[in-house]
Design a protein that fits this description.
single chain; binds adenosine monophosphate; 8-stranded mixed sheet; alpha/beta; globular; 14 helices; 6-stranded mixed sheet
Length: about 400
């Protein structure tokens, strides 16, 4: 079955057409600047990237453009819409309601809307994408795959904030965690690659990209993760602060004469390694700056690495041990220096990195030495494939 995977943001829409039997993507693409002017970048497997500047006034126009590109006589990969068996939608927040992926109907849409308060930037955009697809592809089954669902197995002691309990009762203020599709996919793959039985395993996944999170996966189930009510908690990220003393918010607001939304914007968009270095949120720029002697860029990297290593230690304690550590996402998959720096803190666990094996980029690889007590792997994530698999399983 051919499955269209949609990841819809407020002004962008990413897509892949995946064959559920071969698990290969026939085409991938991105609509950008929706509601501004519009650009569609469409790539057919094995061919060159094609860029079309075309007006995309809204998300419906974007979905229409995607379908036209998929069916295009010259650059298309299907001859008619009937060939698309189902659509899988990434949805960021499923609250406590969604513990797994679901077939979308009116009741599911209403329940996703109820989670909008928990992800005001993401869920409404995800819903716009679902609406547009339902309008343009009536009768095609659609599935929602939630970033939060995999972490719904966290025990109460892990997801509870020490706040007045009424905030949980009234507003469901608790830790949810994100990147769940990636943590789930990578933990399964890491178990397969290291020959460990997933149902009897202790795996730590480090999803290190512009957004970054660590998770503790015990016997295939998430038991803790570093992101919380929102994706702001936890690791140092590209532009997000991760964990800070909450008293800093009032302190900065008073000192700088800023409003609460302004301080939150700083924590989300102006902090992390970008705020620390003053150089960039991109580690490639940071490494270039550090190599050129920029001390703040060096320090930013050290803070990022140290926080990541601390979480790995915490999650080893949470699971009373660890069998496998897997690195994924932009940095985790590609940056051997960051992987080596994080693992240098883990010698007490018996972690030993093999520098030759670690010299790998964007590929599945064992990067620990044969004598390492813990297996360490680089595992490229594939959230789109995970969404396609869930979609096929639910509608197949
Ligand atoms: P993501 O959000 O998963 O796309 O990850 C973005 C981060 O990954 C950025 O900090 C990039 O610098 C880093 N990254 C992406 N590709 C590479 C690469 N080939 N080498 C080193 N870092 C990379």
């Amino acid at each position: 079955m051919k499955i269209l995977v949609i990841n819809c943001g407020s002004s962008s829409l990413k897509y892949q057409l995946i064959d559920s039997e071969t698990e290969k993507a026939a085409a991938v693409g991105l609509c950008e600047r929706i509601g501004i002017d519009g650009r569609l970048v469409h790539t057919v497997a094995g061919c060159e990237k094609l860029t079309f500047d075309k007006p995309l006034p809204d998300h419906e126009a974007a979905v229409q453009a995607v379908l036209a590109a998929l069916m295009d006589g010259q650059h298309g990969v299907v001859s008619s819409l009937d060939e698309i068996g189902a659509v899988g939608h990434r949805v960021v927040h499923g609250g406590e309601r969604f513990t797994g992926s679901v077939v979308i109907d009116d009741a599911v849409i209403a329940a996703i809307k109820e989670c909008n308060d928990l992800a005001p930037l993401h869920n409404p955009a995800n819903l716009i994408g679902i609406d547009a697809c339902r309008k343009l592809m009536p009768g095609v089954p659609m599935v929602a795959v939630f970033d939060t669902a995999f972490h719904q197995t966290m025990p109460k002691k892990a997801y509870t904030y020490a706040l007045p309990y009424e905030y949980y009762d009234k507003y469901k203020v608790r830790r949810y965690g994100f990147h769940g599709t990636s943590h789930s996919y990578v933990s399964r793959r890491a178990a397969e690659l290291s020959g460990v039985d997933l149902n009897n395993s202790k795996i730590i996944v480090c999803h290190l990209g512009n957004g970054a999170s660590v998770s503790a996966i015990l016997n295939g189930k998430s038991v803790d993760t570093s992101m919380g009510l929102t994706p702001l908690e936890g690791l140092v990220m590209g532009t997000r602060s991760g964990d800070i003393d909450p008293a800093i918010i009032e302190f900065i607001a008073k000192k700088e004469g800023k409003s609460l939304p302004e301080v939150m914007e700083i924590l989300n968009k102006k902090s992390g390694v970008y705020g620390l270095s003053g150089v960039s949120s991109d580690f490639r720029d940071l490494e270039a700056a550090a190599d050129g002697g920029n001390e703040r860029a060096k320090d930013a990297t050290e803070v990022f690495v140290y926080r990541t290593a601390k979480y790995i230690g915490a999650y080893t304690a949470a699971m009373n041990g660890v069998d496998v550590i897997a690195f994924t996402a932009g940095l985790g998959e590609n940056d051997k220096k960051i992987r080596a720096k994080v693992c240098a803190y883990l010698k007490y666990l018996g972690v030993e990195i093999d520098d030759v094996r670690n010299d790998v980029r964007g590929k599945e690889a064992l990067i620990s030495s044969d004598s390492s007590k813990i297996k360490v792997l680089a595992v490229p994530t594939n959230e789109e494939l995970a969404i396609a698999r869930d979609t096929a399983a639910l509608v197949g």
